[in-house]
What does this fold into?
Amino acid sequence: MDETRRLTSLVNDVLDISKLESDIERMTAARFNLTRSIGETAERVQKLLKSDGFKIVFNYDGDVYVNADETKIGRAFYNLLVNAVNYSDDSRLITISQTLSKNHARISVTDNGEGIAKDDLPFIWDRYYKSGKNHKRAVTGTGLGLSIVKKIIETHGGNYGVESDVGKGSTFWFEVDIE
Ligand SMILES: Nc1ncnc2c1ncn2[C@@H]1O[C@H](COP(=O)(O)OP(=O)(O)OP(=O)(O)O)[C@@H](O)[C@H]1O
Ligand SMILES: [Mg+2]
It folds into this structure.
């Protein structure tokens, strides 16, 4: 069963990324409530993981509307959230923030997990790249999640990035233009 799940997820990721590549001009941008969309996904994942002791907190200051592809932005956020879950430590606390500047909204996902070595940082956004460490939780990923995030945010013309300290945790973020 586990292997089937793993293969299904691999196939879906590969399909996702080839679809994204052929789909770039066919992004369907529409106005939507980014805050609500992020909040709903966070709540859904929180419900699923509550019994495992995860606490997912979302800090935001009012609702923000953006003109973007809701499904794809949702996918990018989901990939960051799943990573935070997979690579977090025993505190199992994940903090999501929405911060605003003049032109864009930034969504950040922070975990108190193992962090990422400086040498690995430039490569984690590449396809199939996984840092060679042993992870705390059994992680069966294929190394596609962040390359999908990168593709989606670049397609939207937004910025993305990460700050990370080994042993302390990571904050992954991306920005979407405000309407
Ligand atoms: N929050 C995080 N904390 C620590 N390391 C991380 C975090 N997010 C990503 N990484 C590192 O970056 C690598 C690439 O992440 P990515 O999401 O692309 O792949 P994955 O999680 O291994 O697999 P997939 O997302 O395809 O299931 C991971 O294997 C891990 O080494
Ligand atoms: Mg991942």
User: Anything to note?
Assistant: Residues 13, 79, 83-84, 87, 111, 113-114, 116, 124, 129-131, 141-147, 170 surround adenosine-5'-triphosphate (ligand 1) (CB under 6 Å). Residues 2-23 form the longest helix (22 residues).
